[in-house]
Amino acid sequence: MGLQINNNVAAFNAYRNLSHTQGALGKNLEKLSSGFRINRAADDAAGLAISEGLRAQVGGLKQAARNAQDGVSVVQTAEGALTEVHAMLQRVRDLSVQAANDSNSDGSATQMGFQVGSNAGDTLNVNMVDLTSVVTAVKAIDVTSAAGATAAISVVSAEITTVSAGRANLGASQNRLEHTINSLNVSIENLTASESRIRDTDMAAEMTSFSKNQILSQAGTAMLAQANQAPQGVLRLLG
């Protein structure tokens, strides 16, 4: 190859390769510092779309798990209140039996719904015992006479049955909610793992690529310097 001073082709080639290496080195640094293989759509458009979809599902499931946990708290609070009502009704019944020693009402319920899935229809309804009928029945009790005390025993027994059924229903609802929470957590874990495989950086592979590009960058810089020195030989010919 002849000596040329107007166009240093060797220097141009060295510069082009060095620029390419520097760009790759910059991407290595970005991926290593962020921990993500995909930092923008240009890195992997299809992977980014799948990753964002998985992230949306994980976000919905996490909120659903929180909703289910709120449901467990509500059920536990309601069950605790019914425990106290149970104890009071049992005490009233004991006193009624004592007052009558001479000798099933339907419980209405309200419903609470909890969103326990990432889809609109994923709800779990919990029937809450309405204690209005229980309070009304107990307020009507009259144990000042033996007949009234005997009637009170039947009334209170029926209300105890109502409260017991309500507590059993709450217990079953709590079990379902806790099972749902466990299932949601497993789904969250699996989806997060899938999203990680798509989006996260393989640190070992990326570090290997970084080391290679770092060596190429150093070599490219040295070769560019050598290529820039080549035209100096013309001066020796002229001088």
Describe the structure.
This protein has 239 residues and is mainly alpha-helical. It has a domain at 60-200: Up-down Bundle (f41 fragment of flagellin, N-terminal domain). Helix content is 74%, strand content 6%. The protein contains 6 helices and 2 strands. Strands 1-2 form a two-stranded antiparallel ribbon. A hairpin with a 7-residue loop joins β1 (109-115) and β2 (123-129). α2 (45-99) packs antiparallel against α4 (146-199). The longest helix is centred in the N-terminal third of the chain and has 55 residues, at 45-99. It is rod-shaped. The two termini are 21 Å apart. The model is unreliable at 102-109 (pLDDT under 50).
Compose a concise summary of this entry:
The protein has 239 residues and is mainly alpha-helical. The chain has helices at 9-34, 45-99, 132-139, 146-199, 203-229, 232-238, and strands at residues 109-115, 123-129. The chain has a domain at 60-200: Up-down Bundle (f41 fragment of flagellin, N-terminal domain).
CATH hierarchy class name of the domain at 60-200: Mainly Alpha
Shape: rod-shaped
Output the radius of gyration.
39 Å
CATH topology of the domain at 60-200: f41 fragment of flagellin, N-terminal domain
Structural class: mainly alpha
The helix count comes to 6
Strand elements, count: 2
Q: Which blocks of ≥5 consecutive residues have pLDDT under 50?
A: 102-109
The rounded distance between the terminal residues' Cα atoms is 21 Å
Largest sheet: 2 strands, antiparallel
> What's the architecture of the domain at 60-200 in CATH terms?
Up-down Bundle
H and E string: HHEEHHHH
What percent of the residues sit in helical stretches (DSSP H or I)? Answer: over 70%
Strand order of the largest sheet: 1-2
Mean pLDDT: 78
The fraction of residues assigned to DSSP E strands is 5-15%
> What's the CATH H-level homologous superfamily of the domain at 60-200?
f41 fragment of flagellin, N-terminal domain
